Amino acid sequence: MAALGYFVPEFPNQTHIWMWREIVALRRAGVRVRLISTRAPGADACRHDFAEEARFETFYVYPPGVMDAMGAMMRGVGVVGYAMSLNESGVKQKARAMLLSACARRMCAWARREGVGHVHVHSAADAAHVASMSHRMGGPGFSVTLHGDLEVYGRDHGRKFERASFIATAGRHLIESVARLGVERERILSLPMGVETGKFTPRGWDEGDDVGVLRLVTVARLHRCKGHVHTFEAMRRLLDEGILVEATLVGEGPHRSEIEAEVRRLGLVERVKLTGSLGEAGVREAMRRADVFVLTSVGAGEASPVGVMEAMSSGLPVVVSVIGSTPDMVRDGVDGFLTGQGDVEGIARALREMSRDRARRRQMGERARERAVEQFDAGVGAMRLLEAIERWGGLKLRGQA
Known about the structure:
- By secondary structure, this protein is α/β, with parallel strands linked by helices.
- The protein is about 45% helix and about 15% strand.
- It has 16 helices and 13 strands.
- The strands form two sheets. Strands 3-2-1-4-5-6-7 form a seven-stranded parallel sheet, sandwiched between helices. Strands 10-9-8-11-12-13 form a six-stranded parallel sheet, with helices on both faces.
- It is elongated, with a radius of gyration of 22 Å.
């Protein structure tokens, strides 16, 4: 029986924890999973316990060798034809596609060696081009998961997707954008990311609970698109009203200095702690110490935030902005609160209510936990992905690992 190729760009990275959970669930189902990626990330890119094992297992298509480039050129007409057919791309993008063809040829050879019959690609950017060209060179069939708004992943998505067995989206809000590319609706399915809900246990009601301080936690990159400043501004309003609140930010990113400057500007140095990136155990501990999870992202690119799923699995009520699939994940007023993007007063209002009504906060957390177990468990999502691959890829993958 064939193996399944699992293709994640620059794997493993800090945000790839949920993908590793999916890999583990697929293997438990008896699937022989083989890992493939674009290029190796930096040595400190992932601090989770699985990182060393994942690096050891993963095959990287970049940089390609001389033989890979020669093999791609031997397919010259097809390679050039694919690159030239990228009508939404400029000259530089078409030249890049030509260079990626050597990576595609390298992927073909790897798939033959490993007995890979299908590759699932967790990206709609360059990795999807590589899989598409590899298939045209005689490589395995493929499918793609779109994790956010199409514009984040470049151009010519219709060409990337046209031979895919199916397209999965990380949220229902993305289905229509894929359908507009000409992909048949029956080949588009919503497969949100997942977490191992059993590992995230809610703390006891009185365990370390300081009734005088509302403790917030955010697990996200230190990037301005995560809207951390809006949370800070809401905190400042509450503190000015005499409501004690503090926050822990778990994550690292390119805008750390900018975020630290905002903390200083708002006089929150004693109220905001930046931990940097933490492993899974550290994230779980940060959740257990908190009363409320907050994620006030803005812009495009967010789909189904894993941090929200982890928080709900931990029995935390959540305050999140309306972005991507968060309206499908969170029932406003039931599991937590939804706010408008950049709506500082809306965030402050939600936190104010959380601080004043501990009983409601507890009830919301309990409902959040129930919803997480029902909707976000990684095992459920992995089986839905496997069923789609076996159906649309025409392969039997189970019962062999």
